[in-house]
Amino acid sequence: MIKEESKIALIYTGGTIGMVKSEKTGALRAFNFDLLLKKIPELQLLEHQIETYTFDTPIDSSNIGIDDYVRIAAQIEEIYDEYDAFVVLHGSDTMSYTASVLSFMFENLSKPIILTGSQLPIGDLRTDAKENLITSIQLAGFKKDGKPVIREVGLYFEYKLYRGNRTTKLNTDHFQAFSSINYPFLAESAVNLEVNFSALKKINLKQDLIVHKQLNPNILVIKMFPALQKETFEHLLATPNLEAVVLETFGSGNSKTDLWFLNALEKSIEKGIQVVNVTQCKGGSVVMGKYETSQALKEMGVINGKDITTESALGKLMYLLPKKLQSKVLKTVFETSLRGEMSSN
Predict the structure, then answer these.
(1) Measured between alpha carbons, how far is 45 from 278 in angstroms, rounded to an integer?
(2) β-pairing, 153-157 with 113-116?
(3) pTM for the whole thing?
């Protein structure tokens, strides 16, 4: 890897990584990122130029919503031409959701947007924040022949860079909090920083960046469970303004075959509600029609989510619904990989 200086924008939205303990009270408070280089002198060893941007009021990631997705995207769009790369500091609890939706918002992305955070505050003695931050900046700054090596939305945590829209948070107690079970990591931090070039997204550099800032939140996630009741299911599907459902099914896409369940689902689809079938398993893929318990879903036009994550399915629907596509077209588009979020088969 040729070492070249990159100009990197560091955007702090909130989260544990940006917290330090008050010397007086011991309570956690937001870190002043204008003093970043002074507080983390290791960053001065990097060859990159780093400039910081901070949300006026840092947001706990549990409170992040569509307006915040648009705000992050708009911030990056505004300064896109000024920087080679972008590192977004974000709370870990919903980081996979944000990484997923951002991947769809940025079409023809030709620079890295890497999200990172930490399990412990930056001022904690045993913090993972410094390593996550420093390595995210190093990876974001990688160039080859003067161009960024990574050209997609990534998520870096505990020695691994993942494709953001393939990730899920799996652990609240370990530093290795995230996983990408259905897709290999993009890079790994060991004694050396190793990039998995074969896993990186291929892009067409001749196409201009398009930032999609219209998102639709009228989506519901329904997790199947054996004792799901007719009244509950019908009540959920009757949610006002509902436009799409992500149905977390069993195994390879299997569901109940009770007539009340299938009838309620079919009526919703006939009303124009988009239904996406994703597996509630952490790994593997939906294969509708493999078993009798998913054949009816396939026949009524349920969208096959394949090996997409729930987080990514939500982001993809938020992005697609404002396009006002006909149901059959939306189904075809959803079942096609747009940003590397699902396997092609």
Answers:
(1) 45
(2) parallel
(3) 0.94
Spatial neighbors of 87 by CB under 8 A, at least 6 apart, are 8, 9, 10, 11, 114, 115, 116, 133, 136, 137, 140
Residues whose CB falls within 8 Å of the CB of residue 209, separated by 6 or more in sequence, listed in order: 77, 80, 106, 107, 108, 109, 110
Q: With 90 as the cut, is the pLDDT of residue 31 above it?
A: no
The span from the CA of 119 to the CA of 17, in Å, is 7
Catalytic residue among 16, 116, 135, 168: 16
Mean pLDDT, rounded, of the chain: 91
User: Residues with Cβ < 8 Å from 207, sequence gap 6 or more?
Assistant: 108
Among the residues of 227-271, which ranges form H helices?
Answer: 230-237, 259-270
Spell out the domains of the chain, with CATH numbers in brackets: 7-211 (3.40.50.1170), 219-334 (3.40.50.40)
Structure tokens at 195: 């990039």
| Annotated catalytic residue 167 | no
- Mean pLDDT for 82-99 is 95
Cα(25)–Cα(116) distance, integer angstroms: 27
Q: Select from 218, 214, 210, 256 the least CA-distant residue to 237.
A: 218
Amino acid identity at 232: T
Of 46, 189, 194, 88, which is closest to residue 131 (Cα–Cα)?
189
Residue 265 binned pLDDT confidence (cut-offs 50, 70, 90):
very high
Question: Contact 97/90 with Cβ under 8 angstroms?
Answer: no
Alpha-carbon gap, residue 49 to 229, rounded angstroms? 57
Joined together, the tokens standing for residue 105 give: 């918002």
